[in-house]
Amino acid sequence: MWLWGLMTASRRRPGELESRHASIDLAELAHATSLECAPDQLRGRCVLVLTRDPLTAGLALIELDGLARRIVLWPPDLGREHLPAVMDMAGVDAWVTDGGGGDAAGEHEEGGTGAAFAGGSAAAESGTVEAVVRPSLIPLRGDRRVSHETEWVLLTSGTTGEPKLVLHTLATLTSAVRRQPVPAGPGALQTGPVVWGTFYDIRRYGGLQIFLRAMLSGSLVLPKPSEAAPDYLTRAAAAGVTHISGTPSHWRRALMSGAAAAIAPRYVRLSGEIADQAILDGLRAVYPAAAVAHAFATTEAGVAFEVGDGLAGFPSALIGSRREGDVELRVEEETLRVRSPGNALRYLGDGVPPIRGEDGFVDTGDRVKLEEGRYHFVGRRGGVVNVGGLKVHPEEVEAVINDHPWVRMSLVRPRRNPITGAVVAADVVLAEVAPPGRSEAAPVGRAEVMSAGLAIDTAAAARCGERPPDDVLRREIIEHCRRRLAPHKVPAMIRFVPALEVSGSGKLLRREG
Amino acid sequence: MSVRSTIASLFEEVAREQGRTLAPLSDDLELFDSGLDSLSFAIIVARLEDSLGVDPFNAAEAVEFPVTFADFVRLYERHAG
């Protein structure tokens, strides 16, 4: 099985891949290429796909599947400091970049993707192949025959902030897609070309599912990195999008903009977060003719189910039975477990835990509760916060907060939020007196960015032993986090508390749900 | 402080925190054009729940999602009052 083969099965003509700046007729890939190197240079290699533009990433995926031994897909917002570890764990010996051109040019603070490889010359000496992918096609020279059952590696966030490398194949990734690329529903009765849209980036599991569905069934209109939902919808409308997916947070944003009415989709899909009744009702009101479905999937477990009855949660009948596509669900210790051909194979790296338990089920870590015949999601085990579809591990944020000289300890927890599902909240125990030595070590030493003024104020106060007022400290801790964490990981709320509960074994007690 | 001025000062506070340029807050300013992103709105709604004691988005009855600044203020005035 290979991607181009699935795209052209039964003499099907592939559709188009469109971004803000370019539109590629994928059928031309039969005789053309987006890569500025001969296929044989990448054959059998472990290729890191690190592009700014999701369009070039998509083109590279189509061309590399069947050719590369392994593809590693770099997500758009992962810090470049993780590059060496990821390359090492995955055994990367080639990379494809787009030189920072295309859709994302000049929109991010970091340098171009080429510049991302600080050790570029060292890597070149070690025989790593560098290739460039362009958002345009040139005649194909060379041989692109299929030679490998390519492995696909997706990156997800881990507890410490280090990414985890999740190993899939095209077979596991498309197990839900191949069964039915275009979902059934009221919209299925309408005919005409299928044009997919998604608010997701295609370099994460949810977006990749839509990319693969689109490749097997029609065209795809890609969002540009960090494009606001309303802007994207305006483009999607112009392209005649018929099937579209996003998180509940994306959709709430779309509904708040008034731009939602610009499109008239046949199918609307929500996933990546808990879909509550308000957003399901809101979408049904705006898109009365569309099938509105919410799906549950994780990078490790794959797609578990899709529910199309317009109600939040999922029917308890889905649990226990082996369903279409051999997907089995189970609830154990309150969390949802999934066994299916869509499960990832394993994590890459040394000393990593197995993805599946001994019974072959993947524990999603998502906690569910049975109420009147339906299961509802009630949060994640371990206090993991889901902010608009992006996971935040409390330990990573706590470590940063605790590094502030006036903080003794902290507990990071999810706080329910109607816009992004949840935001990060922190309970912080302050020190009575700033511990000696730390006042100089923390903010002043790292005062590389803007709030140096604030940091110095506190450090000065710390030396005098006086604690700044709560409001000042709250602002300062937030600023301290902003300098070191992605925006969605920065606490939205900080509460100062006299103490935190600690278990007998000395661990912070995390209350679930 | 009125509901409106509480909301306006939170818009400014969060915009500053998030390093975003806030458009002048007039009644007909569309929230989408305000310069704030989803995360900013999420933070504003969370802090308003603390300061005003209500979260109109979580109310039992269906919520009309606000489109303009005035819609947003009205939504809170209705629930806070």
Describe the model.
The complex is a heterodimer of chains A (513) and B (81). By secondary structure, chain A is α/β, with parallel strands linked by helices. Chain A folds into three domains: 1-173, Rossmann fold, CATH 3.40.50; 179-381, ANL, N-terminal domain (Rossmann fold); 385-496, GMP Synthetase, Chain A, domain 3 (2-Layer Sandwich). Chain A is 26% helix and 27% strand. Chain A is built from 16 helices and 27 strands. In chain A, a hairpin with a 3-residue loop joins strand 14 (291-298) and strand 15. In chain A, helix 14 (438-444) packs antiparallel against helix 15 (452-464). Chain A is globular. Chain B has one domain (3-80): Non-ribosomal Peptide Synthetase Peptidyl Carrier Protein, Chain A (Orthogonal Bundle), CATH 1.10.1200. Chain B has three helices and no strands. Chain B has helices at residues 3-17, 38-52, 69-80. The two termini of chain B are 13 Å apart. The chains are: A alpha/beta (513), B mainly alpha (81). Chain A binds chain B through residues 228-230, 249-250, 252-253, 255-259, 278, 281-282, 387-388, 415-420, 423, 425, 475, 478-479, 482, 487-488, 492-493, and chain B through 17-18, 30-32, 37-39, 41-43, 45-47, 50, 55, 57-58, 62-63, 65-67.
